[in-house]
Each structure stands twice: as structure tokens, then as C-alpha cells.
Amino acid sequence: MKCTKYSFMFFVCFFMFVFILIFPEESFSLFPDEERIILYEDYEAISRSVELHGAVIVSDQERGRSLQLTAETFAEIKPSQALNAKAGTLSFWMKPLWEQESEKSHTFLTLPWADSQKSYMAVSHGWWEPLGSKRLYFILSNQESIHCSAPYGFDLEAWVMITAVWESGDPGYCKLYVNGEKIAENQKPFSGDYVNGGPLYLGTDKGTTSQKGRGAESLLESLIIFDRPFSSQEVFQFYQTQEKDLAAAYERKWEWLNKGLAVPLIQRRDRQGRLIENRAIFDEDMSWAFSKEAADKILSRVKAAGFNIYVPCVWHGRGAYYPSRIASTDPKVASMIPLGYDPLAYLIQKAHSMGIEVHPWFTVVKERAPNTLSFLMKVFRRVLLIFIILSFGSLSVN
Length: 398
Prior knowledge:
Largest sheet: 8 strands, antiparallel
């Protein structure tokens, strides 16, 4: 028994020794490029550089210790190293505490820059209201117009990782990510030749010249800033290392779709088995007009997908896809029509035999070939005349 016990301990120690040799110390690091970190705050042990203004540290079951911010409370951090607008990556975790129906903006982070224009940086859900309401913003510099944003609705029950990346130059850029996925980007030349001119504010817009009393009403955790820009792949990998439950995060991401798929599909049909509801598919291509075989293939796919209305394009600027006494024929189908083949007539006949309606559409404002605009005027002149009469009539009445 002793030999077995010692042998087992020997193999365990040997395995650990080999493992350490193969995987150097850097591979165990929680963050990439630790030497490039300018600021890191995980709220486990508040550093002297953090000053709380009513904000409190709480324990969260999912993320551990975090900073709780209300609409009136905030915190400020005085970085030991200068933050530079030339390049960087900023990332933090956030969980909303606001109500679902809230129309207010929620500002997570702001910082003044030490430049002559009094510009600022901000990460906020809502800015430049009312047009910017409910958009997630990353503003690197308001004065240089370096910002990107996208409409975004947060899951009020979930933590998310917000990441901002920027680099100056020609072109320069700023990018915004949520849970490792890019949601907004802006490319524009800028210098970024300035550093922070004050503390980093959390949960308030006090670090900007647009102070409207915006608060965060959220939990913040693991704020980190690097002095170099991450690639999109690095941002995604960084998110994966920080996310404590990737499987649950994936489920949350597609919860809306799974709920929809779980709803039983009820198809109302008439006595002949035809769908009573209309399901239309729009087609801008012209391949259906090339041959009977091409039309059959497309209609079979439409039928198999459960659609009962097909909306094919019959004129896209170069001519009609069918014989016409008014319009010229598109060059790609012109050679077939003199032989007696009418692509549109065949399409309609075949579609009707399969229980599919056909509703052709025209690109009514695009002219790619001579005389096509005159064709539109001939076809729609009465409509245009009625529109003009009604328009002037309504103007005279008002």
C-alpha cells in the first residue's frame, strides 16, 4: 500500500512539474498584457485613489463585490497613470438597477480631457437627448466628433461586459462592444494628442461639459483600462475569460428566439388545404426569368419554405423581364422573348398551380438604360396627375 501511495504522489508531483514547465507564469494571468494596464479596479479592496460619494460596495451573488450606484450617488477615481486619447481599451461589467419603463439616460463613466477645447470622454446609455435616448454611446472626444453608438436594450436581470476601443491616426477609429460582440464603430482621422484633465467619474456626467444630472442606477464591476487597442478577436477572448458562466450567457442571448420557437405553430387553412394567412417573400433578383427550369426551382423553394405569395421584380432599370408594347426588354432576357417565351406569364401560371399568388413589383425610380424613364411616365402619368391635383388641392384648402 505504501508503494502505491508514494507512486501516486510521485506521478502527481511529476505531472505538476511538467505542467509548470510547459505553461509559463504568463499563461495563468487573468488579463492579457498586464504591463499595459493603466488602471484596474475590482472593488474587492478599494484603493486610496477611489473616492465614494454616496456609492457603496455590495456583494453580488454572481460577480462578487461590486460598486452600487443610484441616480444621486457616484464615485471618482484618480488614476496613478495618465489616460491617453491616442489609443486604448476600456472595459467594465455592468448590471442595470433601473426600472424597465425608465426613459432616463444612465451614464456609467465620464472623464475630462486636458485639451484647449474642454472635450470629454463618456460611456453612457443615452446622450444628446432626446435623439440619443436609449442608445449606448462611447464618446472618446465630443469636440473631435469621435464617438459611436447603437440602439441597445439591456436585460435588467443580467450582467454585461461593455468594452470601448480607440486609436488615433488617419484613419482613426473608435469601437464599442457588448459581451465581446461589436455593436458600433466610427472611423475618422483624429490626433488624440491629450491626456485626462481630471478624475474618472463613475455613475455621473460630472466629467463632461454636458452636465444634466445623469446617474447610473446600476452595479459596476471590474473596471480595467489598457494603453493599447484590442482587436475584435482579443475583445471576444477577453470576454470569454471574464464571463463566469458562458453557457448561461449564451442562453440569455437567444432567449427571445427560443421563446418564439417554443410557441406552437398554428396554420389556418381552407377546405382545399391552402393557407388562409398570407406569407410573402420579396425577390429582387431576375433569375426566375431566365428559363422555365429556373422559375420552377424558385417556386419550389418558395413553396417548401411555407410562403404563399411571391413578389418578383419585373423591371429594375434596364428594361422589362416580359414582353411589353410600352417598355423595352431587359438585354438579359431579350433573346428569349422573340422565340415566344413569356417569363412572367409562365411564372404566374406555374405559381397558381402550386397555390402561390404572384405580385410583381417595379423599381420605379431607377434608370439604367435610355428611354426607361419615359416608360415610367407613360405607365404612371395618370397616377402622377392625380397626385399633383390632390396635393395642390390640399394646399389651397389649408
